[in-house]
Amino acid sequence: MSWKNQTITELIFLGFSNHPELQGVFFLIFLVVYLITVLGNLLILIAIRINPVLHTPMYYFLSNLSFLDICYTSTTVPIMLVNFFREKKTISYEGCLSQLFFLVTCAGTEGVLLATMAYDRFVAICHPLHYPVLMSKRLCAYLGAGSWLCGLANSLIHTGLTTTLTLCSSNEISHFLCDIPLLLKLSCSDTSINEVTLYVASATIGLSPCLFTAVSYMLIISAILKIQSAQGRGKAFSTCASHLTVVVIFFGTAIFNYDRPSSGYSLDGDILVSVLFCIVTPMLNPIIYSLRNKEVKRAIKKLAGGCMSSGFSKVNHVFHQTK
């Protein structure tokens, strides 16, 4: 049975099938998480856009991260929410390929983007006098676009190779999403090229940004410890604390999701790890930045205050008109 001749027109997700009695509860939980993710990241995007104080390289990259997280979670959650109301949780052949493409694009882009943000913090703390020159608007635009291009190129290669697979063992995926390793397990054709490409991509798009980020923070921490005053050290660390927290969560869940041993495999455990990586992490990012970053917190409060005052003004205007 080949994907090329479309003998198999749909795939069946087995994710969450172990708990049919909890489908309603799962739907409510993931709906709330999805709404928090989208609204939280939109709030950060708007706050950065309308506040001139936040028009700096660090917040330019943060706006990219917020937009990316909206795309990331929207790739998997909507179809999952719909499937909670279906007895047979399916996705079409084209839908599976589309989900795979956007999922790999977003995951690869986020890893490179976080490494880019680490470089920004390295320059800001270790070379503050040269920061305006080293992080010019043009370079920031190139770095942001480069992050997206890396994720896109990686995804195009993997998606193209996936279309060559011959799926013959089953059309059931033991998960709630389409991912490369899951589809390789269902193939009865030669997957050696796919596997080699996956290992190379894991090293270049996955491991390299992680190592680059780790080295950057070693240099950053070394520079911070050399600051004599405790107040200066605290101020310097506060500028990168939010990003460091996001980095640890993203790369930590990514490593656990893709590199854990298969001997302890269970459907529920596998789904839990993927939920943390693909759904919970995009929700936590805006929360972390809004709680730990004073400038973002101030901008969001100002935005919320402006919206409330505008709403009260409109209500007051309507009230006086009716009188």
Could you walk me through the main structural features you see in this protein, from its secondary elements to its overall organization?
With 323 residues, this protein is mainly alpha-helical. It has one domain: Rhopdopsin 7-helix transmembrane proteins. Helices cover 76% and strands 3% of the residues. The chain has helices at residues 23-50, 57-83, 93-126, 131-134, 137-162, 180-186, 192-225, 230-259, 267-292, 294-322, and strands at 10-13, 90-92, 172-173. It has a 3-stranded mixed sheet with strand order 2-1-3. 33% of the residues are buried. Mean pLDDT is 84; it is low at 1-6.
Secondary structure: helix percent: over 70%
Mean pLDDT: 84
Give the low-confidence spans.
1-6
Number of self-contained structural domains: 1
- Name the CATH class: Mainly Alpha
**What characteristic shape results from the CA principal axes?**
globular
What name does CATH use for the topology? Rhopdopsin 7-helix transmembrane proteins
Q: Give the number of helices.
A: 10
Spatial strand sequence of the major β-sheet: 2-1-3
Number of strands: 3
